[in-house]
Amino acid sequence: MKSLYKTSGTCSTYIALEVEDGILKNVMFQGGCNGNLKGLCLLVKDMPVDEILSKLEGITCGGRPTSCPDQLCQALRQIK
């Protein structure tokens, strides 16, 4: 399933993702910290959604209550 998620509280604005049979097949962030998010996308590609949620959910960025990894988790929960 392909999905486009509008982020909230982060420098990135959107996350485009594709999940098949509980596995994150593809993810791309619009905006945000380019190098860090490219790295994050490569690290979570082909990873089970539940594993991503257990590792990244709740991560904050600076004084913000969320982060790009946390927003990815919110997107995954929305389509799960």
Q: Overview of this structure, please?
A:
It is a single chain. This protein has 80 residues and is α+β, with helices and mostly antiparallel strands. It has one domain. It has helices at 34-44, 49-56, 68-79, and strands at residues 2-6, 12-20, 23-31, 47-48. The protein has a four-stranded antiparallel β-sheet with strand order 1-2-3-4. A hairpin with a 5-residue loop joins strand 1 (2-6) and strand 2 (12-20). Helix 2 runs antiparallel to helix 3 (68-79). The longest helix is centred in the last third of the chain and has 12 residues, at 68-79. It is globular. It starts with a strand and ends with a helix. The model has no long low-confidence stretch (mean pLDDT 97).
State the helix count.
3
Helix-strand string: EEEHEHH
How many E strands? Answer: 4
Radius of gyration: 11 Å
Q: What low-confidence regions span 5 or more consecutive residues with pLDDT below 50?
A: none
Helix residue percentage: 25-40%
- Described by the principal axes of the CA atoms, the overall outline is globular
Largest sheet entry: 4 strands, antiparallel
What is the strand arrangement across the widest sheet? Answer: 1-2-3-4
Indicate the structural class: alpha+beta
Number of individual domains: 1
Give the DSSP E fraction (strand runs of 2 or more residues).
25-35%
**What's the N-to-C terminus distance?**
10 Å
Mean pLDDT, as a whole number? 97
Quaternary class: single chain
Sequence-ordered SSE layout with sheet pairings:
Elements lengths: L1 E5 L5 E9 L2 E9 L2 H11 L2 E2 H8 L11 H12 L1
Antiparallel strand pairs: 1-2, 2-3, 3-4
Helix pairs in contact: 2-3
